[in-house]
Amino acid sequence: MKKTTCLLALVAVATMASCRVRTVNHDNGPKVERVVKVVPFERIKAETACDVYYTQGDVPSVKIVGDERDVKNVVISARNGELNIRSAMRQRLLNLSRQHPVKVYLTSPDLIEVDFRGVGGFYADGRIDTDTLAVALRGVGDVKLEDVICDHIKVRLEGPGDIDIDKLQAQQADVTLRGVGDIDINFVNSGNVNCTLYGVGDISLKGNVRTFSKDKKGTGDIDTDGLVVARPN
C-alpha cells in the first residue's frame, strides 16, 4: 500500500512539473507561451507579480505568457487542491514593468478560494458557479469577477487594491475591508449580507438582498444608496 501511494505521488509530481514552451507573436512583440500540466485544483494562491485570468471549465489547465526570462521564473505547483503561483526570483518579478506583466491563464472545474498576495490582478470574465467561495486580496492590484453564483461567499480586502464583482448571486455574503482600497459589489436576488469596514477604503453595494447588516470602525464609507433590502433592520 505504501509503495503504491509513493508511486502515485511521484506520478502526480511528474505530471505537474511537465510543460511545453513555444514562441508566439503578440501585439507588443514576440512572447513565450508555456503550458504546464497540473493535477486538479480548486483553490488558487498567487504570490508573485502577474495577471491571472481564470475560466471555469471541465479540464484543469495552466498557460503562462510573457517575456522568456520572466516566464521561466514563474513556478507553478499544485498540492491538496491548491494551485500556487510564485517566483523563483521574487525580487526580479516584483520589479517587472506593469506595461507588460506575465499573464497566467487558468482553467479548473471548480473554484472555492482565491488568495491574491502578489502584484497585478485576478480576472474572471465568465461565470463562476460554485457552492462556497472565499476571495482575498492581500497584495497590490485588483480582483475583478464578472458573474458569480454560490451559496456562501467571503470577500476580504487587506491590501491597497480593489475588488469588483459585477454580478453576485449568493444566499450568504460576508464582506470585510481592512485595507486602503475599495470593494464594489452588485447583488442579484441575494440573501443575507454582512459588511465590516476597518480600513480607510470604501465599500459600495448595489442590487437587491434579503437582509443587510454593517459594522463600520474605519474612516472609509459604506455606500448602500443603490442597495434594496427586502427586510431592513
Describe what this molecule looks like in 3D.
- 12% of the residues lie in helices and 63% in strands.
- The chain is built from three helices and 16 strands.
- It has helices at 2-17, 68-73, 90-94; strands at residues 19-26, 29-36, 43-46, 49-56, 61-66, 74-79, 82-87, 103-108, 113-116, 119-129, 132-137, 140-157, 162-177, 182-197, 202-216, 222-229.
- The chain has a 16-stranded mixed β-sheet that branches.
- A hairpin with a 2-residue loop joins strand 6 (74-79) and strand 7.
Helix content: 10-25%
Alpha carbon gap, first and last residue: 58 Å
Beta fraction: over 45%
- Number of DSSP helices? 3
List keywords for this structure.
233 residues; mainly beta; Pectate Lyase C-like; 2 domains; 63% strand; disordered N terminus
Short synopsis of the structure:
It is built from three helices and 16 strands.
Helix-strand layout with pairing:
Blueprint: H1 2-17, E1 19-26, E2 29-36, E3 43-46, E4 49-56, E5 61-66, H2 68-73, E6 74-79, E7 82-87, H3 90-94, E8 103-108, E9 113-116, E10 119-129, E11 132-137, E12 140-157, E13 162-177, E14 182-197, E15 202-216, E16 222-229
Parallel strand pairs: 3-7, 3-9, 4-8, 4-10, 9-11, 10-12, 11-12, 12-13, 13-14, 14-15, 15-16
Antiparallel strand pairs: 1-2, 2-5, 5-8, 6-7
